[in-house]
Amino acid sequence: MGVKATSPPRKNGPGAATPQGREDIATAAKQGSPTRSVRRASSGRQQVPLAPASVFGPVGRRKCWWYSYRCRTCGAYLFGRARSLDTVTGERRAGCGHRVHVMAARIYDQPESGAAA
Questions:
Q1: Phi and psi (nearest 5°) for 71?
Q2: In degrees, to the nearest 5, what angle opens at C-alpha 98 toward C-alphas 56 and 90?
Q3: Do β-strands 99-108 and 50-56 pair in parallel, antiparallel, or remain unpaired?
Q4: Is 34 exposed, middle or buried (0-12, 13-18, 19+ CB in 10 A)?
Q5: Is 16 part of any domain?
Q6: Domains in the chain: how many in total?
C-alpha cells in the first residue's frame, strides 16, 4: 500500500544525480559543445523594424518637413509630416498599422539663397 513506484536512475547522462554526470556537463561546456540557450528581450517586447526615410525640408510657403518611408513588415510606402527635423526620427505606428522606427536616411534641403554664384 505505501510503496511508491520509482524509475531506475540514469547512468552517465547529462543531468544525472551522480558526480560523474556533473563532470560530463562541465567538460562538455569547456570543449565548446553546442548548448541550448534562450534569449529574452529585457523589456519583453519584440524589436521594431527600422524604416529609413527620405526627408524633404520646408520650401517656399511650406513650413513642415515631409518624409516618406517603406514599411518593412508589409511593404507599403507611407508619408508623414513633422514640424522639425528632430521629430522625424523615432518609433511610431505607421499608417498601415505596424510599428516602425523611422530613421532619416536621406535629407533633401534647399541650399542657402546666397550660396550659388
A1: -70, 125
A2: 45
A3: parallel
A4: exposed
A5: no
A6: 1
Closest CA to 88 of 71, 106, 61, 62: 106
Each residue's pLDDT tens digit, 4-13: 666 666 555 5
**Which residues, 6 or more positions from 70, have their beta carbon under 8 angstroms from its beta carbon?**
51, 76, 77, 78
Give the residue numbers spanning the domain of 101. Answer: 50-108
pLDDT digit string (tens) for 68-113? 999 999 999 999 999 999 999 999 999 999 999 999 999 998 776 6
Residue 25 domain flag: no
Is position 14 within any domain?
A: no
- Tell me, yes or no, whether 102 lies in a domain: yes
